[in-house]
Write a structure and sequence with these properties.
Blueprint lengths: L9 H6 L23 H16 L1 H6 L4 H14 L1 H4 L3 H20 L11 H13 L9 H13 L8 H16 L8 H24 L3 H11 L2
Length: 225
């Protein structure tokens, strides 16, 4: 039976990339309430601009679209995590790519990244990045970028399993509250304050996945430790 073809979009471009990756693999469904707001688009577009700037040199050497480059970064990270543990530049590229991909999905009115990418696998990988930070390290953009990525993923389905959410929260909270302060300099104190603001936003995003009293209690159990 012939089916109606969707309008041309990133999925057609990605289908020709040679990476066997297609955005058409994303499931369609009812959009979450946050998809209609302006903030996800603004946040996603900013992350997309950041990632595009980072990948500009590669795009000049290879004829790939920003969407293809974004997916390639995520695929490479998930397939070779061990090689990325000590490479902060690659870690940041992955963390910036995640909100860009979420923005792309929301722009196409998809409510999930699956089956192309597992939301749970992405969250697990983010938790691992934070856990591998040096103990008592100075404030780093890895933590803030991780929280931004989590916030973007929280706008898409499916909701996280509580066990995985607990793992993620423990990693983030430990990273935030054990972070050094750069010998008390004004810059690092301001950066630490920004972390706390980002944490508040991330917790709010996780609550919107399942806005129930049980979910709120689950989050509070981790915050009040």
């Amino acid at each position: 039976m012939a089916t109606e073809q969707p309008p041309a979009g990133p999925e057609q471009e990605l289908g020709d990339s040679g990476t066997n990756t297609s955005c058409s693999a994303y499931s369609r469904g009812s959009s979450s309430p946050s998809m209609g707001s302006d903030s996800p688009e603004v946040e996603g577009s900013l992350c997309a601009e950041t990632l595009s700037a980072q990948l500009e040199e590669e795009e000049e050497e290879e004829d790939v679209s920003p969407e293809q480059a974004t997916i390639r970064v995520i695929q490479q990270h998930l397939q070779g995590r061990a090689e990325w543990v000590e490479d902060r530049a690659k870690q940041l590229r992955f963390l910036h790519a995640v909100p860009s991909l979420c923005y792309l999905a929301q722009r196409q009115r998809w409510d999930t990244l699956e089956p192309q990418f597992s939301k749970a696998a992405l969250m697990e990988s983010i938790a691992e990045l934070i856990e591998n930070l040096p103990m008592e390290s100075e404030p780093t953009s890895i933590v803030s970028s991780s929280m931004a990525a989590v916030c973007s993923l929280s706008k898409l389905k499916p909701p996280l399993a509580l066990e995985l959410e607990s793992h993620l929260l423990r990693a983030v909270l430990h990273g935030v509250f054990t972070m050094g302060t750069g010998q008390g300099t004004t810059h690092f104190r301001a950066l630490h304050k920004t972390y706390l603001q980002s944490l508040d936003t991330m917790l709010g995003g996780l609550l919107t996945e399942t806005p129930t009293m049980d979910k709120l209690q689950h989050l509070l159990e981790h915050v009040h430790f």
